[in-house]
């Protein structure tokens, strides 16, 4: 399988802020690849470097073997990006904007009219075609942004948080359109902080946190990569202090992840240990509202791999 | 997409957008027309006839020269807004070379200037004189050079900072320096009474002054003007400004 995007020791600094920190990644041709991480984790910066908008501070990025710095003109022929924030001015109208985009990416005028109309109809944008951008809702603006890439059909299609601000019905239509794009031959890169979207859409996922790669693999591989395969989740009566005390007590069983209203312990033999934990907590005077034993979700993988706390978000 | 077709596609976007700022255009047009029909007509009876026999005929070609600024500078304003809203990121991601993109932007701004100026050139022909074919060619060349200079200068200024207020201030400052340090309002003889000789030499050789003189000669207000020397000097100005501004624009766009 050919590598579509190769990233080696990529670093991007903005002043003293390190946005991307020594990132290594291979994205294979034809896959739907997810960059998963919270806001400010370096996803967008990485995508902007792949699409030649930003230059790396150090490291190397190749698109089909072409260096993004030295061969930017060639790289841009392979890449199309739908930005996180729709890029238009208030005077723009969706139809004009997309028609112009279609001309830039190589369609003749008549082809452009046809492809733009088709894509606008698929995304439910046709009725909004002659409205000014400021008259559109956030979700509709986002769809216009996505439409650019669907029109372009690039070899590497990048979507930065494609369904943020989009309603649930449109979300499914967008996912279908992105999958269709892959079927037509594009390699798809999706940056998201939505675990459900990542799990549903992506064949492989890179978890990025504070600019660093924390984990990489398929959803199943990531879930299996947690050494303690079960999770005991507890809900206790009490305040943050209660959870702090419980966490101290239960660290002996495995890695713990605490939020305001639950405590998760990653461990083996979850069902047997849950009874021990229950007894221990009762003996120390804790009041237990709920105890569950479950398999890890992608959320759990994220928190386990990054060590992030929910309060950070 | 080839270099020229990419540049033209970029320029066509800027031209089509030009018509969307109708109210701004109307305001600009009103100001320039006021310069001709209020300012020039009123001053026609005040100025010394020995220096300026007909102030309306003197002023109209000058206004045609400064009219290119207003329209060409509008591209600078728009580029500034695009930087603030990060639309520039989209433009930089498009499948074309950076130089084609920069050339397209400058071409778009220059064409805006030319389109806007046409009505003032027609006005000058009506008020002063209809030019001969040769002189019309000089006028056209002057317009091309002036609009390219101003468009690239305005774009370069707008990309020099992300601070929108500073962008607007720098553009306005440049406009007023070029506007006031020129012979649009007064002929060389009058300027010589106010400025020291060294400053006078600068004032009469700025792009606006050179263009105003060529227009005045082209429309027949002046008889004895060394149009060839002036157009060559304007060419040097134009090439220098366009090259430097293009390089600055390219550098500012890609510095991140």
UniProtKB/TrEMBL annotation, chain A:
Keywords: ATP-binding, Nucleotide-binding, Transport. This is ABC transporter. Belongs to the ABC transporter superfamily. It comes from the Archaea. GO terms for molecular function: ATP binding; ATP hydrolysis activity. InterPro entries: AAA+_ATPase, ABC_transporter-like_ATP-bd, ABC_transporter_ATP-binding, DrrA1/2-like_C, P-loop_NTPase. It comes from Zestosphaera tikiterensis. Transmembrane segments: none annotated. The keyword Secreted does not apply. The keyword Mitochondrion does not apply. Residues 5-235 form the ABC transporter domain. SMART domains: AAA.
């Amino acid at each position: 399988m050919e590598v579509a995007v190769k990233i080696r020791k990529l670093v991007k600094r903005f002043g003293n802020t390190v946005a991307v920190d020594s990132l290594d990644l291979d994205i294979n041709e034809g896959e739907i690849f997810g960059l998963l991480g919270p806001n400010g984790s370096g996803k967008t910066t990485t995508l902007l470097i792949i699409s030649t908008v930003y230059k790396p501070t150090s490291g190397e990025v190749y698109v089909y073997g072409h260096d993004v710095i030295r061969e930017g003109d060639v790289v841009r022929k392979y890449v199309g990006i739908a930005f996180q924030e729709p890029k238009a001015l208030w005077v723009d109208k969706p139809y004009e904007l997309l028609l112009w985009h279609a001309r830039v990416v190589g369609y003749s005028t008549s082809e452009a009219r046809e492809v733009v109309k088709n894509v606008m109809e698929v995304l439910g944008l046709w009725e909004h075609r002659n409205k000014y951008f400021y008259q559109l809702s956030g979700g509709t603006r986002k769809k216009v942004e996505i439409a650019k890439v669907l029109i372009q059909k690039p070899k590497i299609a990048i979507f930065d948080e494609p369904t943020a601000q989009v309603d649930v019905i449109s979300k499914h239509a967008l996912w279908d359109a992105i999958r269709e794009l892959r079927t037509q031959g594009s390699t798809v890169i999706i940056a998201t902080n939505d675990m459900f979207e990542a799990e549903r859409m992506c064949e492989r996922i890179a978890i990025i946190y504070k600019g660093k790669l924390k984990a990489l693999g398929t959803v199943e591989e990531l879930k299996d990569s947690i050494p303690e395969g079960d999770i005991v989740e507890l809900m206790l009566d009490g305040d943050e202090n209660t959870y702090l005390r419980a966490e101290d007590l239960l660290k002996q069983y495995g890695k713990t992840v605490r939020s305001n209203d639950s405590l998760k312990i990653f461990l083996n033999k979850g069902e047997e240990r849950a009874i021990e934990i229950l007894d221990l907590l009762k003996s120390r005077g804790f009041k237990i509202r709920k105890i569950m034993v479950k398999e890890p979700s992608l959320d759990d993988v994220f928190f386990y791999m990054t060590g992030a706390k929910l309060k950070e978000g | 997409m080839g270099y020229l077709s990419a540049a033209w596609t970029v320029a066509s976007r800027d031209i089509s957008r030009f018509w969307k700022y109708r109210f701004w255009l109307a305001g600009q047009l009103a100001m320039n027309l006021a310069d001709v029909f209020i300012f020039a007509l009123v001053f026609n009876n005040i100025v010394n006839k020995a220096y300026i026999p007909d102030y309306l005929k003197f002023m109209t070609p000058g206004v045609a020269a400064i009219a290119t600024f207003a329209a060409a500078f509008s591209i600078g304003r728009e580029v500034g807004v695009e930087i603030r809203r990060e639309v520039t990121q989209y433009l930089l991601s498009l499948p074309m070379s950076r130089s084609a993109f920069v050339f397209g932007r400058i071409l778009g701004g220059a064409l805006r200037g030319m389109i806007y100026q046409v009505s003032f050139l027609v006005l000058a022909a009506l008020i002063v004189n209809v030019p001969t074919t040769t002189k019309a060619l000089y006028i056209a060349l002057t317009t091309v050079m002036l609009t390219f200079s101003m468009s690239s200068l305005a774009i370069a200024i707008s990309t020099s900072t992300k601070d929108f207020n500073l962008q607007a201030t720098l553009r306005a400052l440049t406009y007023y320096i070029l506007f006031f340090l020129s012979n649009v309002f007064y002929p060389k003889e009058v300027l010589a009474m106010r400025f020291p000789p060294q400053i006078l030499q600068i004032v009469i050789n700025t792009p606006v002054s050179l263009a105003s003189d060529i227009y005045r000669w082209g429309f027949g207000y002046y008889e004895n003007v060394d149009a060839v020397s002036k157009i060559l000097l304007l060419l040097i100005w134009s090439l220098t400004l366009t090259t430097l501004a293009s390089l600055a624009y390219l550098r500012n766009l890609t510095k991140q």
